[in-house]
Amino acid sequence: RGLGVCVTELRHLYNMSKAPLQSMQDWCAAVRSQASVLSDLDVTLRANEIFITLTRGVSDRYDAVIVQLAALDDNKHSIDAIIQALVDQESQ
């Protein structure tokens, strides 16, 4: 697959945003799915790119969690840790 496909799929990731009534689990699954598409295209994503996408469109109630996650060292920004923190916040 060519550069055009990679750019299109990256743009899709960068333009994703959580819908107001979408559950956090569904939202995270959608982002993971798009990240998987990119991985299959041999596109390497940094954790902060996933972090930004996962937090796009979330309500203000996630602000404290986002600040805590942003304060972590880059090597602690695993996708699983970010998703778990967001899902935990939704259940509170």
UniProtKB/TrEMBL annotation:
Protein name: Uncharacterized protein
Species of the source: Hydnum rufescens UP504
